Amino acid sequence: MRTGGRSTITIGADTVDRDGLEELAANRAGDIAGAPVVAVVAHPALSTVATVLAGLRARVTVVPLSPDAGGMERNHILTDSGAALLVDGGHISMLPPPPRSRVVNDVEADLLLYTSGTTGLPKGVPISMAAVRACIDGLADAWGWSKDDVLVHGLPLHHVHGLVLGVLGPLAVGSGLTHTGRPTPTAYAAAGGTMYFGVPTVWTRIASDAAAARALSSARLLVSGSAALPGPVFDSLLAQAGQAPVERYGMTETLITLAARADHPRSRGSVGAPLPGIRARIVDEHGHPAAPDEIGELEVSGATVFSGYLNRPEATSESFTPDGWFRTGDIASAGADGVHRIVGRASSDLIKTGGYRVGAGEVEDALLTHPSVAEAAVVGEPDDDLGQRIVAYVVSDGADEQGLIQHVATALSAHKRPRAIHFLTALPRNSMGKVDKGRLRD
User: Fold this and answer.
1) Quick check: 205 and 237 in contact, CB under 8 A?
2) Residues 244-280 pLDDT 10s
3) Cα(25)–Cα(19) distance, rounded to whole angstroms?
4) Domain boundary among 296, 315, 345
5) Strand partners, 391
6) Stretch 193-207: mean pLDDT
7) Are residue 379 and residue 331 in the same domain, yes or no?
C-alpha cells in the first residue's frame, strides 16, 4: 500500500505526517515479520493503523478484531484464522497453535475480515490488496477523491467501511484523514474536512443537530453506507447542509461494488451504478433476469469480489452461482440506466404477502414520512392466510396504530400496509448502526 501525498493522519488526539506513520509501521514490522497471520485489536488509534500497514508491508495476513468482541467470538476468530500473534495497542502476545491446521490457503489474503451472517459463527473473508486497490480506484473516480481532500469519520476500524475505505483509502489516494474517535455530531462539525463518511445512525444524529448539519455545508462530499439512508434524513441534510449524502453499496465479501457519483444529481435511495471492473445483475426467484425496476436478488462479479470463505467450502459453494457470480443475499432493483436501489436482505426484507413481493425498505420509508415517526423497521411474520404479514416496529411521539397503517396504505398501496404496529422506545441496532431484525422477531 503506497502512502502518497503529504497530508497528515489524525486519530483522536494523535497526529502524524506520512513519514511519521511510515516510521511507526517500520518499527512494528520488525515485531511481526515472519508470522503468517497476525490479529490486531482494532482500537481507534494510530497503533492500529501502524500495525495494519506493517502487516501489508511485511506480507503478513492481518486480522482486525473488534475491541468489543466477547470471549467466544474472539477465540473463534483467533483459532479459525490461525493467528500466531495478537497485537493489542503496544502489547504483543504469542498465541498457541490452533487445535487443527488453519491456514489461509489457495487465496491471496492480505487482510482477513470476519463477517457475521444470520446463523453460525463469523466467517473469514480473505481480501487481497489487488481487490482493495480496485475498490479505492473506482471510488476515487466516482467521488473525485484526491490528495487535496481531508476525509473525516469515526467508524470502527475492523470493518470494510472504517478500515478499507476509511484508512487504506486516504493512504492510497494521498488525502488527509481525521478519525474522530466516536462519530458524534459535535466531532464531525469541528473536524473541518472536505469528505465525511458515516452510517445512517450518524447522519440521523447530525440531521437532528442543526448546528452540526450547517457546519458540514462547507464539505465537498458526504457519503453514507452500511445500511439504507432513511429518506427523511436525506431531505433534512439537503435542507440544512445544502447537500445530501451520496450512497454506496458493498459487503465484506465484495468491498464496494455500486456507488452514486459525486458529479451526478443526488437521488433518494439510489446507490448508483457498478464501479469500473464490476458487473451486477438482478435475478428473480427462479434465477431469471429481472425486468428494469423489478426487485430481485442482486448478484455481482468482478475485481473486488473475494474467491471464497476461509475453511468453509460449503458456504463458499452456496454463495456463488454455477457461472461464478456472488449471491449477495440482498434484494435490489435496477433502472434501465443501470442505477440501483437496495430494498434489503432477502432473508429479512423481502416479504411475500398475499401473492405480492414487498420490500421492507419502501414500507419503512413510507412510515418515516409521517411527522410523528422517528424510527421504523418492518419485517414479515408467518400468516396462515397471507403467507407472511407485514409488521412494523416504530419509535414515535404520539402516532397511533390505525393512523400509521392508513398512512402507509395511502402513500403506497393497500397490500403494502402493515397489519400490525408495535411501538418501541428504540430499535435494537448492531455496532454499525444497522437494525437487528432478528432481535425484533425474538
Assistant:
1) no
2) 999 999 999 999 999 999 999 999 989 999 999 999 9
3) 10
4) 345
5) 379, 420
6) 94
7) no
DSSP helix/strand/coil, 393: strand
Query: How much is the pTM?
Result: 0.83
Contact in structure between 300 and 134 (CB atoms under 8 Å): no
422: containing domain: 354-441
287-324 in b/e form (b: 16+ CB < 10 A) is eeebeeeebbbbbbbbbbbbbbbbbbeeebeebbeeee
d(CA 193, CA 170): 13
Do 337 and 368 fall into the same domain? no
Q: If we measure between CA atoms, which residue out of 111, 100, 96, 108 comes closest to residue 40?
A: 111
Alpha-carbon span 314 to 307, nearest angstrom = 13
Query: For helices 401-411 and 360-368, what crossing angle results, to 10°?
Result: 110
Gap between the Cα atoms of 441 and 427, Å rounded: 12
Q: How many CB atoms lie within 10 A of CB 352?
A: 13
CATH number, position 242: 3.40.50.12780
32: which residues sit within 8 A by CB, 6+ positions away? 38, 51, 54, 55, 58, 60, 85, 87, 92
Give the separation between CA 230 and CA 89, rounded to whole angstroms: 37
How many independent structural domains does the chain possess?
2
